[in-house]
């Protein structure tokens, strides 16, 4: 983070790690698959909710999918890096899993050996569904975007607060994030300046621009975990913002 290298890191992306998940080292294999579950369980869960499953059933199916299909059936050997995006492959595999459920209902209750769950649902409760999503596929994408943004914003907040630049984060949060997340009006810039001891609105605006630029940088770096080239990073980056704009317009 903050380094000078701008080229795509071919050896460290999650794509590369996923493709190396077939290994005799079970601890390493579970760690790799755990990263996959962290990145994709919310999109899978939201997709299932939009398919009509209730909260508890969707949780069971999400857990079953990652345990039975991802962990035990080794889906990575079927993934072709040259054919589309990984999340498209994962969504297609999830569809086949659902089709197969009526023949194998016992999979709904499966847990990994040793009783260790791959997915922790404590934070989700009865997670609110995005009103702007009309298709299960849109909900899956929405869940993936939300997971990415959560990761990026958490990293940004930690970065600014740990380096003593709390005002950067708090001004950005008040003027940019709060109106979006809490759906309210942002406070007047004059109030923000008084609260944080800033000279004027221009200084506050400069802080916001700085954090926005850093946000774009971190988001693109995080996206590199899920794609195969710098060109795809730019494509995903553009699609995310187009998708969010469509959601706000509905």
Write the layout of secondary structure elements.
Elements: H1 14-19, H2 26-50, H3 55-72, H4 86-100, H5 136-162, H6 166-181, H7 189-196, H8 201-223, H9 230-249
Helix pairs in contact: 2-3, 2-5, 5-6, 5-8, 6-8, 8-9
Structural class: mainly alpha
What's the number of extended β-strand segments? 0
Average pLDDT for all residues = 76
Largest sheet report? none
Bin the helical content. Answer: 55-70%
**Low-confidence residue ranges:** 1-12
Q: Which overall shape is indicated by the principal axes computed on the Cα atoms?
A: elongated
**Number of helical elements:** 9
- What is the radius of gyration computed over CA atoms, rounded to a whole number of angstroms? 20 Å
End-to-end span in angstroms?
35 Å
Domains (count)? 2
Strand coverage percent: under 5%
Secondary-structure element order, as H and E?
A: HHHHHHHHH
How would you sum up this structure in a few lines?
With 250 residues, the chain is mainly alpha-helical. The chain contains 9 helices and no strands.
Explained architecture:
With about 250 residues, the chain is mostly helical. It has nine helices and no strands. Helix 2 packs antiparallel against helix 3, helix 5 packs antiparallel against helix 6 and helix 6 packs across helix 8. The radius of gyration is 20 Å and the shape is elongated.
Keywords:
single chain; 250 residues; mainly alpha; 9 helices; elongated; disordered N terminus
